[in-house]
Amino acid sequence: MRWLDTYALLQDMNRHLAWPPEALEKYRLWKLRERVRHAYFFSSFYRRRFEACGVHPDDLRTISDLRLLPLLDKDELRRTDPLEVVTRPPDTPWMVEMTSGSTGEPLRIYRTWNDLVPIKAKVIRAFTRTGFTLFQRQAVLKSSAESLTGRHWFERLGVLRKLWLSVSDPPEANLRRLRAFKPRHLHGYPSGLVQLAEWLEDHGQTLPIPHLCTGAEVLDPVSRRRIAAAFQAEVFDLYATREVGNIAWECRAHQGLHLNDDAMIVEILDERGEEAAPGVEGEVVVTYLDAADYPFIRYRLGDRAVRKAGPCPCGVTFSRLELVTGRCDDRILLPSGEWITGMVFQELRGTPWASALRLLQDDLASIRLQVVPRGSWQSADLEALAARVHDLVRGQLQVRPEVLADLPRDPSGKLRMVVCALPSPPSPVSAGDVS
Description:
This protein is α/β, with parallel strands linked by helices. It has helices at residues 2-16, 21-42, 44-52, 74-78, 82-85, 113-128, 171-181, 190-202, 221-231, 379-392, and strands at 95-98, 108-111, 138-142, 162-166, 185-188, 211-214, 234-241, 245-250, 257-259, 264-269, 281-288, 299-308, 320-327, 331-333, 339-341, 354-361, 366-373, 398-403, 418-420.
């Protein structure tokens, strides 16, 4: 019956999309004060944190007062017993979820259905804003660890029927399964979808699927165009994390990603810890308003994004992100102390003879350019690519090309293009990001 609860909540959440800004802000402030008060009185972890800062829930009179509360990062939660974080008794029948661990040790999250139902409702709302309906077949291309073998009871009624595919399987095998399943909606990692698109390109084929959503990795313009052409699809980008579920979604106007303002407060902070202006990249910090049992209050996701100003022509009143630029370590550190955002390097994805590439920095003097070639190529092609990378890093880093047969994916199945793997990288703030 939990799915009936999810559907009922979904109907309520859809009504929020057209709320006037004043009503939405009043609702968000009410939820914020309720969540902070609940965490203060029922979570020993949060009570200690708030008291250490001299903050009481009654001090939150406006949403901007949220900055009175301390920032929380994943490492602090990892070091803390989850039973100190939760707001329910230890003998509660918990469901334990793990983050992907793509950039380090996974985080254990204790869930109840009270917290899970809003997460499921949010992702369904995001999908339906792309034109997807609950009675259409959906295929999901992610890591093998996320694939499900069982089926839900409602799938037998034709609702939310799913086909799970793994990015670790050969492209031709996944395409064969897609043709047999005939989905109307496909959701997956951009890198995995590009692999499928590349196979279709090489064989002069297309596979029409009307609605296609990407997530978990940065979707660059080159990849978007290739995926759209191969699947003859309208492509939508989604932004989500394991901790809080869907955060933002692209609507049919394709002018940024709508934040779930009715379910969370998202801050985009600059290097001073202040709210970054629209159009300026900053760190993503989220306060999740729908999680009462395992709270996330001013939680640093480790992602970076850019806020977009103004209303959306689609009519949804929620605020927007212009784009998600990647992880905080999806950047390159120059000897001058400046960071170059990973988006600067996205033009390299248009390299016609490269199937995949990665920029890996493990020292302050050089950068490794790892390339998986496709088709015919010459050493001059690699030299030209290395020269372009050298230009993009302002000539401050030596570029070391490496030709590989394959690029290993993260444990989560994701494939990041830019990785800063310095042993002890400085905090990713600088006198000015290069963008």
